[in-house]
Structure formats: structure tokens, C-alpha cells
Amino acid sequence: MKVSLTVIKADIGSIGGHIIPGERLKARVRDYIEDKGTKLIHDFRISSTGDDIAILFSHSRGEGDADIHKLAWDAFKAGTELAKEMGLYGAGQDLLKDAFSGNVKGMGPAVAEMEFEERPNEPFLFFAADKTDPGAYNLPLYLGFCDPMYNSGLILSPKMASGFRFNIMDVSYTEGDRVVSLNSPEEIYDIATLLRDNERFVVEKIYSKNSGEIAVSVSTTRLHNIAGRYTGKDDPVMLVRVQGDFPAAGEVLSPYAKGHYVAGFMRGSHNGPLMPVKQNSSISFFDGPPVVSCAAYCVHEGKLTEPADAFDHPFWDYVRNNVSRKAMDIRDQGFSGPAMLGYDELEYGGIVKNMKKIDKKFKVRK
Ligand code: F6R
Ligand code: MG
Ligand code: MG
Fold first, then answer.
1. Which helix H or strand E contains 36, and what residues bound it?
2. pTM given for the model
3. CB 152 within 8 A of CB 271
4. Which residues contact 344 (CB under 8 A, 6 or more apart)?
5. Mutate to test the pocket of ligand 1, among 287, 348, 351 (most ligand atoms within 8 A of CB)
6. 256 and 292 in contact (C-beta within 8 Å)?
7. Residue 231: pLDDT over 60
8. What is the four-CA torsion angle of 347, 112, 237, 126, rounded to 10 degrees?
9. What is the pLDDT of residues 79-125, one digit of tens each?
């Protein structure tokens, strides 16, 4: 059967700052969908990563379905009411528009979706990151899909020998979706040329060239492009089909052992290493470090298994320790140089405002 997976995530309020939404808030979102959504969908799961709540739906209505998006929007609205009642911090933070207009894209929540003919066994990974933006997935996707140092299947499996097609979006273009399609391995230098710039170019979709099937879907929303001001980092979600024509789950996961530096962290204005964490983890040190969680599932006739928490394994404790060290290393230099983001990416206006004031005091020596 044809199945659609849709993940919609939003920060609708959290406890003690931008830390964690808490169980009561998640329960409210879950209850809403159980109450109102069962006819529309095959199955769903609720989880949190940092201060964001994600709803994963399995259904048969395709991508961008207005009813599915409305269900998520209304569930987040119901959650926001409770967040306000409880006095949670940043209640309704990511619901940037007052009225739902058919699709949550461009309204604040992050969305990743894909539709495919279900394989007899259909394993997939659901990633959610907090305190960072969609470019955080660029390097792990490049390595997991283009580099045999990470994806041994590229040389070991004939099914992957022909490589993958990347759709890459220019997220600084706000008039519409500006996208380029590039093939790996033929055009990997072009792919790398774009993906090095995490704040401008973002992987949107990846397809198997062997089967033409969809492998990856990433949320590409840039909140500061929607709201025109700081509303939180974009905290991206991603779906990745694995095994067979696609990389193995462990090949997709392997680049996350790096803890590469990404934009985000405190006030969405710093660089910090991306720490792989368990699902439902909180945020702490310097409102970070940026985190990514991964739940592995199988979907069968639309029904989802229980999640297997991919970063809940002793191996990742070692990685987390290394990433903590990398976080300390960059925090050691405070505001200096690469520790803080460049002007265009600063999510708070303070420095820009201050610069205008200081600028007037400059004098040019003759
Ligand atoms: C980063 C983030 C936090 C806040 C910081 C200040 O994405 O959400 O680091 O930027 O805690 O928050 P406000 O401005 O809400 O006091
Ligand atoms: Mg927040
Ligand atoms: Mg968040």
C-alpha cells in the first residue's frame, strides 16, 4: 500500500526557559489527536527533543494534506492553551500566524513529509534537532549518502552503486522554493560546494537513483525568513528510509559520532557541536549544546512500531563525552570569532543596534 509519513514539530512552550515541554503538555497534544484525528490517520507518535514537540503521523493522504496539517495545528493550539494555563515559558512560540491557512509550512512549525509504496518491511528513521537549523543535517547526509568512509554500502551493495539524487534548496530565497537537483557521485563536488554553507543551502529531499524512490525528507523552514525577526532557531526534523536501496540505519547514524559544529546554541547566535541525545531529552549547558535525537521505526500497513531510540546505546555515551569537550572548547572563546555567528545569522538585534550607535563615534584619520 501507499503510505505517507508526516512529521510536524513546534515549540509551544516549555518549563524553566527553553528546556523541555514536559509530560503534561505532550499528553494534551496526544489526547487531542486521539480524540479528533483517528479517522484521518493510520497511526501517530508524540515525542519531544529539547523544547520542541513532534507529531509523527502515518496516513494515506499524501504530502501537504490540508486536513493532516490542520490536525497538527489544532493539536498544537490545544497544547498552547494548556501551556498558557500552566504559565509555561514561550507558550505558543512557534505558532506564528493566528489563523490556519491550509498548510503549516510558512506558519512556524517545521514539516518533513514523504509518500511511498510500503516495502514488505519498511524501516525508517525520524530525526529531530533542537537549538539549531536545517543545515545541521547537511554534513551527516553528505557523508551518509556520498562517502564510502561512512556508507560502506556504496561499495559493498550493488543497489547503491548508482548513487543518489539530492534536491537542495536555497533557503535565503523567500519568494518561493528555489531548488537544484544534483547527482551523487557524478556531481559530489557541486553538492559539497553548496552544502558547506549550512545557513543558505539545505538538503530538502534525496532519492535513490537505483529505484527512483524517496530516501530523505528534511524540513527546510527558516523561521527568521517567515517572521522577519527572532522567534527561535528552526529546530529541523527529518525522515530517512533505510536498508535495501538506501543506506543501513547504522550508516545514516555514523556521521553523528562527529558532533560537528552547527549554528544555534544560546540565543540561536552561536556555533556549537551537535550532540546525539535520547528522545525526550532536555537542553542545558548554554541553552544547548545543539541536540539531535533519532527514533527508528518500522511501518507496516500504516501502523507504526514502538520507537527504537537510536542514540540510546552505550556507544553514544562516549560520543556525548567527546561532544561535551568540543562544546567546552568553543565556549572557552566566548563571543570571539567563530564562537559567535556572523551578522546575518545573529538571532537577536542587540549587536546590530549597538554597532549603529558605535559606528557614529568612528572618525577617519586624515
Ligand atoms: C535558542 C533559545 C534560547 C533563547 C534564550 C533567551 O534557540 O531558544 O537560547 O534564545 O534562552 O530566551 P528569551 O529571549 O526568550 O529570554
Ligand atoms: Mg524555544
Ligand atoms: Mg526548540
1. helix 23-36
2. 0.96
3. no
4. 199
5. 287
6. yes
7. no
8. 180
9. 999 999 999 999 999 998 888 888 888 788 999 999 999 999 999 99
